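Model: You mentioned two targets. I'll fold them one after the other.
Researcher: Yes, keep them separate.
Model: Target one:
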Amino acid sequence: MPKFMTLGEAETKRQKAIDFMERTGGDADKFREMDAAEYAAHKGAELLQNPMKRKHKMTKSELSETLDELADGLEEALDPGLTREELVAKVKELSDIATGDADEDFEEGDQDEYGD
């Protein structure tokens, strides 16, 4: 199973590796010469874009609507009658809602799903 980390996490872990190597007498220079992306690759991890970075700020009412939509979707996903494929599709849909990707898809003209 692949590992994932953000650039910030990779940098933090790289610094910890340097500190550990210095304390134990290891080759700290090996990690000093790497940047965070190289360290992540060395550890076999894939770098993720900053998950906290948003293209726009949500208002309190938009956030409330999104949370309600996620809660409804989670309730639907708990339906024991769903097939594995339906469950995976529902989880992907909820992921898109949580990350804001669902709104971007709609803005880009994917209106068939909404009947327009």
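Model: Target two:
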Amino acid sequence: MTQDEKTGLSGWPLLILSGIIGGVSGVLAVLVSRWMTLYGGLDSPDKHGISSVRACRLGGVLVFSYLFFFNIDHYWRLRELMVSGIGVWLLALGTLFFMIGLFEDMKGTLSAKLRLGLMFAAVALILVLNRDLVIQPVGIRFIDWFMTQPWLAVPITLVSLVFLPNAFNVADGANGLVGGISLIVCVALGHTMLGDLNLLLDIVSVGCLIFLAYNLLTGKVFLGDGGAYFLGALVGGATIVASNIGDLPFWYLLSLIFYPVADFLWSIGRRMLLRQSPMVADELHLHNLLYALFQQLLSTQVRANTMTGLCIALVFSGLPYITWLLTNDSQLDWKWVFLLQWVVYACLWLTLRPKAVAVSLLNPE
């Protein structure tokens, strides 16, 4: 068995599918990802959420490479950069986060504290060079007071842009979960006029589709730290830009990225209540608990994994987007939708936790 076969990056049907979805840039992105597996990025099942197979952590390379090659093709054909203005700074931010995560995927030698420090430095650098990414008033009185104070708005933005990529990385534990959420958010943000940032989001959406083809069909390719950090930074920055423009309601934007944010906050809160380190890893995320349920109902672990990721992405990001399309924001108070998401999340977690514990006791490793 070749290394490609072990990682799920092999196979002419998937390569052809990549060409259909992403053209030449899609094929080149897959080939780059294959080549990089020669130098690292492979790990055991216990390193990537609920997967049960040896896998490749370089799915983020696939997404980033597609964006890179498309940008080159765009410049070669039109003699102009694909993005300008705020899009350049957002792409720069995503690239810095991608490089941090990619190094960890390949080498595994960066401590959590060092990665966090590098992330804060990256965001601080971008905010110094361009203040358009600083969160502006969102139309909610108790929040807007903070956003009108520069000495508060900048640190809040800094923390937010570091928090979300880490939340994406923590949530990256099931097939199609983070990739699916990122795809939905990028498409949803296309309903506001973000200039050439819309094109950037469209290209990232196609990159996510190519990644999802490998992730869902093989179960052996994952975003890894690089991909989760990259998508988290891009989605976070684009959400801030959309909020600042004001075409999309603030609570609607939060509802689109609800799951990574809620799952991370919930995990930190329950660990602190137990007097544990808030950053310690465990198997009590909602996607872990839901997977335990699907594992009993479905024939294979890969199907249970995929069903888990897709259900979470569609319920917590897909439904708000569909609701937006159907109602066209007519007299819908989105803060109640956001609150309902919290109720659903809490009820699911409290219901599934004892069932997952029972399954683990009946089926010890």
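Researcher: Noted. Anything on target two?
Model: Strands lie at 42-43, 55-56.
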